[in-house]
Design brief:
The protein is of the alpha+beta class and 133 residues long. The protein has one domain (2-126): 4'-phosphopantetheinyl transferase domain (Ribosomal Protein L22, Chain A), CATH 3.90.470.20. The chain has five helices and five strands. The protein has helices at residues 13-23, 25-31, 34-41, 46-64, 93-102; strands at residues 2-12, 77-81, 87-91, 107-113, 117-126. A three-stranded antiparallel β-sheet has the order 1-5-4. It has a two-stranded antiparallel sheet with strand order 2-3. A hairpin with a 3-residue loop joins β4 and β5 (117-126). α1 (13-23) packs across α4 (46-64) and α3 runs antiparallel to α4 (46-64). The radius of gyration is 15 Å and the shape is globular. 31% of the residues are buried.
Length: 133
């Protein structure tokens, strides 16, 4: 396997908290899937969890080279933890179409956060076909 693309993003947690206060459920529902919201709501550091998911979505859009534009919806990208607690990425809608065109089969993401900052790094991997000598 070889890393094909990488994206990284840093989010200011107080900025996300301010957006939630200013726009309420409208902001949260526009950005986060039901599963992401449930995960954050189940934790005492809800804003940090949401900020981490936001950073991961931005990192994924960066590795695809698209940024947030056109028909892309924030909820086209979902980050949920598996049984071991590792975040896993599911794509849908326009983002899934773009990933298919780029040949992206799997995205691995890592998220960390403090009360002030959340950072996420995303990589996409591909099988390397080596020429036989």
């Amino acid at each position: 396997m070889e890393i094909v693309a990488h994206g990284i993003d840093l989010v200011d947690c107080p900025r996300i908290e301010e957006m939630i206060k200013r726009h309420g459920r409208r902001f949260v529902e526009r950005i986060f899937t039901d599963a992401e919201q449930a995960y954050a709501d189940a934790n005492k550091n809800r804003v940090e969890k949401l900020a981490g998911r936001f950073a991961a979505k931005e990192a994924i859009l960066k590795l695809m080279g698209t940024g947030w534009r056109g028909k892309i919806a924030w909820t086209d990208i979902e980050i949920v933890n598996n049984a071991a607690g590792q975040p896993e990425v599911t794509l849908d809608g326009e983002v899934k179409k773009i990933a298919g065109k780029l040949g992206i089969k799997h995205i691995s993401v890592s998220i960390t956060h403090t009360a002030n900052f959340a950072i996420a790094s995303a990589v996409t991997l591909a099988e390397v076909k080596r020429k036989k000598d």
